[in-house]
Amino acid sequence: MTTAYDVPTKGLIDALTKKLQSEKEVIPPDWSDYVRTGISRENPPEKKDWWYVRCASILRKIYINNSIGTERLRNEYGGKCDRGSKPYRARGGSGSIIRHALHQLEKAGFVAKIRGKGRVLTPKGRSLLDNTAYEVKKNLISYYPELKKY
Q1: pTM for the model
Q2: Contact in structure between 81 and 113 (CB atoms under 8 Å)
Q3: Domains of the chain: residue spans and CATH
Q4: What are the two backbone dihedrals, phi and then psi, of residue 76, each rounded to the nearest 5 degrees?
Q5: Secondary structure of the chain in the HEC alphabet?
Q6: How far apart are CA 37 and CA 42, in angstroms?
């Protein structure tokens, strides 16, 4: 069985992005065109489909970590903050973006909230990631036949 561990991250997130764009529960909020993704960023994202990419990335991170909370996700998407003449310091990413994305993924049935643990994947979410990983691996094998032995 092919899992998310068996395929390249970029290929999996790209394929998940395309699948999430067809989900009616996962839609970018109105403010997503103007928002920065964290204190360490100066401008909003340039890609138009960045919301779906972030949702796909969050799904993958939950799959890899089994359960993860909003604060840990903020740290995953954070960066260094320019403080003028003082040294840079690590800052978390936008919690609002992560919370809205998680709420949408919960509404779609891919993620569930467990008190004290954070968010975990539902069987529907795990199935989505495994099936997408299988499709990505199948496409990779058609391009690179030497990968068949793995």
Answers
A1: 0.88
A2: no
A3: 4-149 (1.10.10.10)
A4: -65, -40
A5: CCCHHHCCHHHHHHHHHHHHHCCCCCCCCHHHHCCCCECCCCCCCCCCCHHHHHHHHHHHHHHHHCEECHHHHHHHCCEEEEECCEEEEEECECHHHHHHHHHHHHHHCCEEEECCCEEEECHHHHHHHHHHHHHHHHHHHHHCHHHHHC
A6: 9
Contact 120, 114 (CB under 8 A): yes
Structure-token pair, residue 28: 């970018």
pLDDT in tens, the chain (150 residues): 788 898 899 999 999 999 999 999 999 999 888 888 877 777 878 888 999 999 999 999 999 999 999 999 999 888 888 888 999 888 888 888 999 999 999 999 999 999 988 999 999 999 999 999 999 998 887 766 666 665
Total residues found in the chain within this entry: 150
